Amino acid sequence: AATREAAIARLRHSLDRLRLGGVVTNGGFHRWLIDRPEFRAGRITTRFLDETELPVDYGVLEAAAVAAHRKPGSGPWGAGDRRFTPHRPSRTVAMRDLHGNIHVVEPVPGTAVDGVVNVRGQSHTFTRLSRSEHWAPASAGSHGAANAVVAPFPAVVAEVHVEAGQVVDGADPILVIEAMKMLHTLTAGGPGIVDEVRVAPGDHVETNQILITFEHPEETEDA
């Protein structure tokens, strides 16, 4: 590009069309960054991120609504839920993102490719849930003992809240990881006793890496 403004315009155009499915990216952060007046003027310093409030979700609800706007599955469990206002009916759909979070949204027109949506440069990947999946427990371990806590995506361990031998419940915060300048709290998923803590603050972890393992209370009693 001949000028800085032209280069920024080309970058914005590319980020607005970026769709990367199945992985967590920082495309939305870069799309937000290039529209900041400090960046456009070339006045970014090494303290910028520490001194600036960053976006929280990069349009995740908007993206979920777009991803939901496609033909629902056949059968009684793929229909979603209908709710009615005095003037118009609408259907809400449950969409699960890569972090395992479920967003209940009303579908809106847009462009989605295999469940991947671009909102302001950020790629969002969603799985459409059936009614049975939506209302069922989040995991089989919700009512049983937890086996392990694994990393949902590449990240850095920020905090570890448990130690070996500690008794935990399913909702107890186990550790906190950081990815793309955002903190994510991981829970046990079910009651158990911490067997092994395999990470420490500052460790880099990969997707599906086992971070903490648990032993079942009944296993301890049998021993």
Q: Could you give a short description of this structure?
A:
This protein is an alpha+beta fold and 223 residues long. The protein contains 7 helices and 13 strands.
How does this model look, in words?
The chain is of the alpha+beta class. It folds into two domains: 4-132, no CATH class; 140-222, RNA polymerase II/Efflux pump adaptor protein, barrel-sandwich hybrid domain (OB fold (Dihydrolipoamide Acetyltransferase, E2P)), CATH 2.40.50. The chain is built from seven helices and 13 strands. The protein has helices at 4-15, 27-34, 37-40, 48-51, 60-67, 131-135, 217-222; strands at residues 81-84, 89-97, 102-105, 116-119, 122-128, 148-150, 155-160, 167-168, 173-179, 182-187, 192-197, 204-205, 210-215. Strands 1, 2, 3, 4 and 5 form a five-stranded antiparallel beta sheet that branches. It has a four-stranded antiparallel beta sheet with strand order 6-13-11-8. A hairpin with a 2-residue loop joins β4 (116-119) and β5 (122-128). It is globular. Mean pLDDT is 72; it is low at 71-90 and 132-145.
Key terms for this structure?
single chain, 223 residues, OB fold (Dihydrolipoamide Acetyltransferase, E2P), 2 domains, four-stranded antiparallel β-sheet, 7 helices, 13 strands, 21% helix
Secondary-structure map:
Elements: H1 4-15, H2 27-34, H3 37-40, H4 48-51, H5 60-67, E1 81-84, E2 89-97, E3 102-105, E4 116-119, E5 122-128, H6 131-135, E6 148-150, E7 155-160, E8 167-168, E9 173-179, E10 182-187, E11 192-197, E12 204-205, E13 210-215, H7 217-222
Antiparallel strand pairs: 1-2, 2-3, 2-5, 4-5, 6-13, 7-9, 7-12, 8-11, 9-10, 11-13
Helix pairs in contact: 1-2
